[in-house]
Design goal:
By secondary structure, the protein is mainly β. Helix content is 5%, strand content 41%. It has helices at residues 11-23, 413-422, and strands at residues 42-43, 54-58, 68-70, 73-77, 83-88, 93-99, 109-111, 114-119, 143-148, 154-159, 169-171, 174-178, 183-188, 194-199, 210-211, 216-221, 226-231, 236-242, 256-258, 261-269, 276-284, 290-299, 310-313, 316-321, 326-331, 337-342, 351-353, 356-360, 365-370, 376-381, 393-395, 398-402, 407-412, 439-440. The strands form 8 sheets. It has a 6-stranded mixed sheet. Strands 3-4-5-6 form a 4-stranded antiparallel sheet, with no helix packed on it. Strand 29 and strand 30 form a beta hairpin. It is globular.
Length: 441
């Protein structure tokens, strides 16, 4: 069910919301990372929270995966303890809770009445030669599980050799789960039994698969570093791009796809051992031909998630760099740089909506940027710990921003607009923890 905002909501945003509703009416399910191959997570669901303040939702521990929207509720997973929960954002009440056997860095995707999530950690099973048969990323329990969307009851579970930290994709009643064991498991959504196995030869760290309208699945792998295109009609690798000199990144970056172009990024060494170069790559989605590459700047070493994740909208790519600490926009077809902003380290894909870019930094700031010029319009502090590397979601007129400080912040666009109108943009506002139904002014 998608409900409408109260009539007291600002007229301008309501009119924009009607257009958003029409554009997003097909958002019945959330079948892949950030709800679409372009990674621009904009859905029509109205969460029903106040529009003049930040609402803070409590969870047991840090959140690294983007919460997903189901009806007017949120599906939120916690990273280390693996707590999975459905939360009513209007009351901050858990409707159900289930605990996964290991870390949860995967979103909870869903189709119909079934929720699917991957689990596993980033540790390697052995320091031995990577060529040994059981060498994989992910120790202890790893796998995929499915829950009943209404009750949280376990429906099925499939154990894998390597981690499933990337978000699985649901395609035509099948679940595609990229793993740390150099393969993609293909499972039945109905009962979890294996219906296919796609051997990649590279392990997938955090590169959540993107599936375009043609049924092509794109995923990045490491050791060796490659970008794969898989035809989900026959589960064969259609093409692959190799990055022999890459230091890392493509295995962590969820590719973005739109207008027959797929985009990813990676990090390279420079002659200066203290500096690294971040590059953005674009390929023809059907043929795998490289269309262009662009320089995202240089900087020092980055711990974990070395490479920024792109979002595509309106014929443009917007991507942050934890290496150069910039946010930049490029023309999707030509690769021409449109603007760049010194933003601070950004690992997460941004949201692009109504002429603005909303991006989150590792130093706990939500940035509001003019999508045409790249000018910074607001910088809002949210807590003191890094925000999740999976990025924000726009649900109706509220940004859903997960944080590693165990909170999920709901930031209304109307609140941000009022800050700009009052001249309070760039004024630090630290959203505090709240009790159920309590909000931060």
């Amino acid at each position: 069910m998608i409900a409408c905002r109260p009539t007291s909501y600002r007229l301008g945003l309501l009119i924009a919301g009607l257009s958003l509703f029409a554009a997003s009416a097909a958002d019945a399910d959330w079948r892949q990372y950030r709800d679409g191959a372009d990674r621009n997570a904009v859905v029509a669901a109205d969460l029903g929270v106040p529009d003049d303040r930040i609402t803070t939702l409590d969870t047991p521990e840090g959140v690294r995966a983007t919460p997903t929207v189901i009806d007017r509720d949120l599906l939120v997973g916690n990273n280390i303890k693996g707590t999975l929960q459905r939360i009513d954002p209007r009351s901050n009440r858990r409707l159900w809770q289930y605990t996964a056997p290991n870390w949860v860095h995967s979103e909870m995707v869903w189709s119909g009445d079934t929720v699917v999530v991957g689990y596993g950690n980033r540790y390697f099973t052995s320091d031995a030669d990577p060529k040994v048969p059981n060498y994989a990323r992910g120790t202890d329990a790893s796998g995929v599980l499915a829950l009943d969307a209404a009750t949280g009851a376990l429906r099925w579970q499939f154990r894998t050799l390597g981690e499933v930290m990337p978000t699985p994709a649901i395609v035509d009643g099948r679940v595609y789960a990229a793993t740390g064991s150099r393969a993609i498991q293909v499972l039945s959504l109905a009962d979890g039994h294996q219906v296919g196995l796609i051997r990649l030869g590279s392990f997938v760290s955090m590169s959540s698969p993107a599936v375009d309208d043609a049924g092509r699945l794109y995923v990045g792998g490491g050791d060796p570093y490659r970008l794969f295109c898989i035809d989900t009609h026959d589960n064969r690798i259609a093409w692959r791009a190799d990055f022999p000199a890459m230091l890392g990144g493509v295995d962590d970056v969820p590719p973005a796809v739109a207008d027959n172009v797929v985009v990813t990024s990676g990090v390279y060494r420079t002659d200066d051992k203290q500096l690294f170069e971040h590059r953005l790559f674009a390929y023809d989605a059907a043929s795998g031909q490289r269309l262009w590459q662009a320089d995202l700047g240089t900087g020092g070493p980055v711990k974990n998630n070395r490479s920024g994740a792109p979002t595509i909208a309106n014929g443009e790519v917007v991507v942050g760099s934890p290496t150069s600490k910039q946010l930049a926009a490029f023309d999707l077809k030509s690769g021409k740089r449109l603007w760049a902003l010194h933003s601070g380290a950004i690992k997460a894909p941004p949201v692009i909506h109504d002429g603005r870019v909303y991006a989150t930094t590792t130093d706990a700031h939500l940035l509001v940027v003019d999508a045409k010029s790249g000018a910074l319009q607001d910088r809002l502090a949210l807590g003191k710990q890094p925000l999740a590397p999976a990025g924000p979601v726009l649900a109706g007129h509220d940004l859903v921003v997960p944080s590693q400080n165990h909170h999920v912040y709901l930031v209304p666009l109307a609140y941000l607009a009022q800050r700009r109108q009052d001249g309070r943009a760039d004024q630090a506002v630290e959203a505090a923890a709240s009790q159920p139904a309590r909000t931060a002014p």
